[in-house]
Write a structure and sequence with these properties.
Shape of chain A: globular
Largest sheet of chain B: 10 strands, mixed
Order of helices and strands of chain A: HEHEHEHEHEEEEEHEE
Structural class of chain B: alpha/beta
Distance between the termini of chain A: 27 Å
Oligomer: heterodimer
Largest interface: A-B, 48 and 42 residues
Helix content of chain B: 10-25%
CATH superfamily of the domain at 7-30 and 98-219 in chain B: Glutaconate Coenzyme A-transferase
Order of helices and strands of chain B: HEEEEHEEEHEEEEEHE
Strand order of the largest sheet of chain B: 4-3-2-1-5-8-10-11-12-13
CATH topology of chain A: Glutaconate Coenzyme A-transferase
Radius of gyration of chain A: 18 Å
Distance between the termini of chain B: 20 Å
CATH topology of the domain at 7-30 and 98-219 in chain B: Glutaconate Coenzyme A-transferase
CATH class of the domain at 7-30 and 98-219 in chain B: Alpha Beta
Number of helices of chain B: 4
Number of strands of chain A: 11
Chain lengths: 221, 224
């Protein structure tokens, strides 16, 4: 019987090793996989590359992982938070590499990885510092810039409900990057609030089909 | 005596130009206040980059849903007909030209429509772009709302931007505390100016050359 439900957070993140590329769902502090990140931080992995929209704004999740010195590179659109001096101090000390990416380009780079597309051309960022050094190409009189896919070793995401096949639904604006990151990684791990029997989620409204999900762990109440 | 508009009055003035049926994205900060001033009975669909279409009025105190917030992290409501979607779909809407208008703040706007609104080179903060470049490039029309001059009194509407750009030739209209200005193929056209202002006065606080529209009007807004 297929069963993607694992019994603990620690088991869910057991094989995330040094140097892993990890994609994170969430937007500001909406639908972030905080508990998975905090339990991962206890293992002190080194040199992680994290792709996410923004660092933690609530001192939880990614902030804990960064404070533990586990992150070598941050790929994100908005590296600001009330306590983001953590980022700026680490950058100045040469301990953290930052790659700033327009938000839609970040989503599409990860979606591309999930769809087997090595990259794509977009008009976003043409003429700005973020396009410097990248391949440019004209299509029908417009200039576009090439953006490469971002493939994750792991994706850590947050969902509302799951079943044992790994089908997921979300709640409100907590969906955001979660379904996108789920598609872009070799192993996707979801922290969820509720697990329901297979067949209970309406097939018409499942947002992330279980094919994109490897492990599900339910948060303690 | 010329009376400049407050920030909320700029938002009110801009909201009057959002026509029935438009899909509109409001940037974080000052632009978010625009939704409060759409004339009653006019249906405008507000989009939020974090995956929401059809944002309604602010929830009453105590009725906030922590899992339903906008791109500025404020609690929101959904109107009947509203929908939720993930980030790749949200930015497909933005980058694919499906958003009619986006409203952004700006540090500088050039007379050819170039926009600079994301980074100050001497800032000690990490550079943060968010969705600004996607919106500037992808929306059908970009409305900028800002003070006409910087805090130091320097013009923010210029021949050429001096700051790193957000998007090229993307701004269609500029709403300031002194004027409403449209961009056409020949440059910038003043559609409205506050009472007591004339073109020479406005030109003296503007770094790009301005023309006056034939049927220009006085810019005014209710007290807010």
């Amino acid at each position: 019987m297929i069963n993607k439900i694992v019994s603990s957070l620690a088991e869910a993140v057991r094989d995330i090793g040094d140097g892993s590329v990890i994609l994170l769902g969430g937007f500001i502090d909406q639908g972030t996989p905080d508990r998975l990140l905090e339990v991962l931080a206890e293992r002190r992995p080194r040199d992680l590359v994290i792709a996410t929209n923004n660092p933690s704004v609530n001192g939880r999740g990614l902030a804990v992982l960064m404070q533990a010195g586990c992150v070598r590179k941050l790929i994100c659109s908005f590296p600001r938070a009330p306590n983001s001096d953590l980022i700026e101090d680490r950058m100045r000390a040469g301990e953290l590499e930052l790659e700033v990416v327009p938000q839609g380009t970040l989503a599409e780079r990860v979606r591309s990885a999930g769809a087997g597309i090595p990259g794509f051309y977009t008009r976003t960022s043409v003429g700005t510092p973020l396009a410097e050094g990248k391949e440019h190409r004209d299509f029908e009189g417009e200039t576009y810039v090439f953006e490469a896919a971002i493939k994750g070793d792991f994706a850590l995401i947050n969902a509302h409900q799951a079943d044992r096949w790994g089908n997921l639904v979300y709640s409100g604006s907590w969906r955001n990057f979660n379904p996108v990151m789920a598609m872009g990684a070799r192993i996707t791990i979801a922290q969820v609030r509720e697990i329901v029997p297979a067949g209970e989620l309406d097939p018409e409204t499942i947002v992330t089909p279980g094919i994109f999900v490897n492990r599900v762990v339910r948060l303690e109440d | 005596m010329t009376e400049k508009l407050s920030r909320l009055q700029i938002a009110w003035r801009l909201a009057q130009d959002l026509e029935e049926g438009l899909v509109v994205n409001l940037g974080a900060g000052m632009p978010l206040t625009v939704s409060n001033y759409v004339p009653a009975g006019r249906e405008v669909i507000f989009h939020s980059e974090n995956g929401v279409l059809g944002i309604g009025p602010r929830p009453a105190a105590g009725r906030e849903n922590p899992q339903l917030r906008n791109a500025g992290n404020q609690p929101i409501t959904l109107l009947p007909g509203g929908s939720l979607f993930h980030h790749a779909d949200s930015f497909t809407m933005i980058r694919g030209g499906h958003i009619d208008v986006c409203v952004l703040g700006a540090y500088e706007v050039a007379e050819n429509g170039d926009l600079a609104n994301w980074i100050l080179p001497d800032s000690p903060r990490a550079p943060a772009v968010g969705g600004a470049m996607d919106l500037a490039t992808g929306a059908k029309r970009v409305f900028v709302m800002m003070e006409h001059c910087s805090k130091e009194g320097e013009p923010k509407i210029l021949k050429k931007c001096s700051l790193p750009l957000t998007g090229l030739a993307c701004v269609s209209s500029i709403y300031t505390d002194m004027a409403v200005i449209d961009r056409d193929p020949d440059g910038l056209v003043v559609r409205e100016m506050i009472a007591g202002m004339d073109l020479a006065g406005l030109q003296s606080v503007t770094g790009a050359s301005l023309r006056l529209a034939d049927h220009w009007r006085v810019l005014s807004a209710p007290l807010l």
